[in-house]
Amino acid sequence: MNLNRRQAFAYGGALALSANFSTSLAQSHAPHHSGAYERLREPGEVPRPPLADQQAVFDSPAPMATNPGRWIKRAALPLPRSEMAWAAVMGARMHLIGGYGEQRVDRPYHHVYDAPTDRWLIAKPLPLGANHVGVTVLDGRLYAIGGFTEQNRKPHDQCFVYTEAEDSWQSIAPLPKACGSVACVALDGMLHAIAGAVGDSFATKHSINWHWVYEPTSDRWQPRAPLPTARDHVAALPHGGLIHVIGGRVDSFLTNSNLHHVYDPQKDAWQPRNPLPTARSGHGAAILDGRIFVMGGEGSNRVFGQNEAYDLKTDSWQQFAPMMTPRHGLGAVAIGRSIYVAGGGAVMGGGIQTSIHEAFTLD
User: Fold this and answer.
1) Which of 100, 127, 197, 293 would suit a FRET pair with 283, their CA atoms being 20 to 30 Å apart?
2) Are 179 and 208 in contact (CB under 8 A)?
3) How far is the C-alpha of 45 from the C-alpha of 61, rounded, in Å?
4) Number of domains present in the structure of the chain
């Protein structure tokens, strides 16, 4: 198998670490604070596209917070990538799974960011390369649910669980129905897979309102109350025994949504909350200081830099310092006192990938 330099790092590193992930810090990529752009259909780094500046938007209708916070550069990803859809956090590390990169849309990448050392590590690749993979951490293990094997279409039903101590993946029960861009949330020992999209072609692709729950002890999926409106590319987070599902798209980013619903597992019911000020999809979200921060995303000829936060106590929204580099299809997690936002697309669609990594803090 012929591998270029960056592929050799990505895959060779993963194989080298498969015996014991704890040795990875000694073999990790050295930190740097730049960022690169690359086209999906043409190899080689390119300058920041002028279209990225033309499509970038920052205005928010929400009131400005007293302390808007700030963004700082962090170590760039080992290579430009996007459309992994989400990220998950274990301890002080962010895990990014699958996505677009190096002129393919079905990568099995597994990059791990170690926040205390500002370094990227390489872990065991996903068994089935895909984009828009749903991820979450439940009881100390990382789950990867569904995804698309072609560009934002042709979903699969395969699901896997990763154990960090062994740096290994195992198959679990497949989804009852294949889907991609599914939002995954761990709550009270269960994994919730919510909404997403299906369709093997752009003509047949559409959003769904499915809601499945996976129980690890029985390795079974069971249905729950569906999301009130079919959506995909949403943000979903647990807090206070509830699941918040925010924004997303209805079939296409031409019809983005600002809807905000919460799910109560005790009642198996959904209720609306104050909508997202800026409708968008493919955005990141994380909880910091009692607020759900929502950043980035895309729309029709727009890539959003807005950073809007929902106060969980007052059911209200404010705007905070916008992203330095607007992106969509990125990974975002909160670790300690910061929200880390890595990779993503700098222009609408999947034509451009980035390795840019920035962090937001209120300190």
Assistant:
1) 127
2) yes
3) 36
4) 1
